[in-house]
Amino acid sequence: MSGVREPQTAGVSYPFGVLKTGELFEIAPKVRVLPLPATFPPFHVNASVLEDDDGWTLVDPGLRLDETRAIWNGLLGKGGALAHKPVRRVLATHHHPDHIGMAGWFIREHGAELWTTRTSWLFARMLQLDAWSEPPPEAALFYRRCGYDADMMARWRERAARNYSVTVEPLPLGFRAIALGQTLRLAGRDWRVRIGHGHAPEHALLHCEAEDLVIAGDQILPTITPNLGVYPTEPEADPIGDWLESCTALAEQIPDQALVVPGHGQPFRGAAARLRRVIEKHANALDRLTDHLRSPRSAVGCFPALYRREITAPLEGLATVEAVAHLNHLTRTGRAQRRECGNGVYEWEALDV
């Protein structure tokens, strides 16, 4: 589950140690990393700052926070480390608020252009416009079916009030689409666009093959696994299946010697080893969950089988959507079946295969 630290993967190394939030660090000529604050574990997100003759390209410029804006103003304002060039482009690897949240501000205040995948832009625009004072009834039904009691439903309603539009600056009508296999010329290099799925649809990675340098967003993280969740918007989705397929493909495309800038955590080498580790991790989780389903369980009832720690209120939402993701994958692959109980809660039970 997102934010849960795992044992260090064999073959993964950290050539730069720990980078500090708010401080620029050059990892290659014309390529800098800037950890920015976040309000949830692991409490930072990495922006990449790419330098071209005409100005800066900012990859994943952070969550919409006053603290984040202050960091960027300090770097771009008079005497700042980035003040000598304008921001020309903002590139978002995917649509999540901690990655695209500040993009609209750079477009509005700095005249930058937004680059992202078409699916990421569509999701971001749709979610930003989908503001509500009261959550829609189908969303409430989704969580009741997961096994939420009255207290959990009350906490969910509090979380739902802090929706996407609060955490993301207003986005522009127009953007430039990037797509699988495309080559982008940035920071004096050619970057091949690779695409992953599971954590977010059509999640972009930038791979400079000539220098084995990768800007990975959340598709490859060194010490945690990104949340793979099912939401009321697509309750039958199978992000685990999408994720495993993407990890298998990327492990063949990105060598272990590549230097990876992850969306969270420290720049590292050992991408293929890390991807093989997360494939193994999810396979083990699916096996544990199958054993747990020898007796019928709700999604909430599956927490003990999936997570190494007690799930407290702050983690309920992420734990729930990832539990449903694993259950949907077992159902999709014929290892479990789902039924609706008399109280409207869904329960899953393992099948003998």
Describe the structure.
The protein is of the alpha/beta class and 353 residues long. 33% of the residues lie in helices and 21% in strands. The chain contains 11 helices and 15 strands. Strands 1-2-3-4-5-6-7 form a 7-stranded mixed sheet. A 6-stranded mixed sheet has the order 8-9-10-11-12-13. Strands 14-15 form a two-stranded antiparallel sheet. A hairpin with a 2-residue loop joins strand 1 and strand 2. Helix 8 runs antiparallel to helix 9. The longest helix is centred in the last third of the chain and has 22 residues, at 271-292. The protein starts with 24 loop residues before the first strand and ends with a strand. The relative contact order is 0.14. The model is unreliable at 1-5 (pLDDT under 50).
Distance between the termini: 27 Å
**Tally of separate helices:** 11
Tell me what the CATH architecture of the domain at 25-135 and 163-287 is: 4-Layer Sandwich
Which outline best applies? Answer: globular
Structural class by helix and strand composition = alpha/beta
